[in-house]
Write a structure and sequence with these properties.
four-stranded mixed β-sheet, Spore Coat Polysaccharide Biosynthesis Protein SpsA, Chain A, two-stranded antiparallel ribbon, alpha/beta, 7 helices, single chain, 21% strand, 34% helix, 184 residues
Length: 184
């Protein structure tokens, strides 16, 4: 994103993160918003949703696992539902579908995959539901240098949950993609 704050980039006249908050709030009991910069702007964005802004506890912002680790420590429920700030079309039933699969499989983590026409599964590991009891293990993994979400998931009983609307998991990785999406 050329160094700009992804979550604060406008899409349809509002920050990307606001679109995600709107879709996830009805699916969660309490909201945490992980932001390592522009905390005041995120706090204003989060306030109407009763969401709390948190930051990574590790230096150098080592990726999504650091934000997940911070949220696992702060969450006051047995589960944490995660989604990236740059996915404005998050599935409105993400939490329920992941919870059902996690429960049925007696898993520790459930995450979204989309199924392509040819049957190929595309993983979307940051769209996940996980047990907060995994906090210590994630902290240890991060301390050992692990930075890949799926590598950490592989250490646990994780279940893939198929979704058929790949638009719900579209995340915006650069300003050109954002502009293209805005034009559509």
């Amino acid at each position: 994103m050329d160094g700009v704050d992804k979550g604060m980039q406008p899409f349809r006249g509002e920050p990307l993160a606001l679109h995600v908050l709107r879709r996830l709030t009805p699916q969660a009991g309490a909201m945490l918003l992980s932001a390592n910069r522009n905390a005041d702007a995120y706090a204003k964005l989060a306030a109407p949703f009763g969401a709390r802004v948190i930051a990574d506890t590790l230096a150098d912002y080592p990726g999504p696992l650091a934000g997940i680790a911070a949220a696992l420590r702060i969450a006051q429920t047995g589960f944490l539902l995660t989604a990236p700030c740059d996915a404005p079309f998050v599935d409105e039933h993400l939490g329920a579908r992941l919870a059902q699969a996690l429960d049925e499989a007696r898993a520790d983590i459930a995450y979204a995959v989309t199924v392509e026409a040819a049957g190929e599964r595309i993983a979307h590991p940051v769209f996940a539901l996980m047990r907060t009891s995994l906090a210590d293990d994630l902290d240890a993994s991060l301390a050992s240098g692990e930075r890949k979400v799926r590598a950490w998931y592989a250490r646990h009983k994780a279940v893939q949950v198929p979704f058929h609307d790949d638009r719900a998991f579209y995340n915006i990785n650069d300003l050109r993609q954002l502009a293209d999406l805005e034009r559509r």
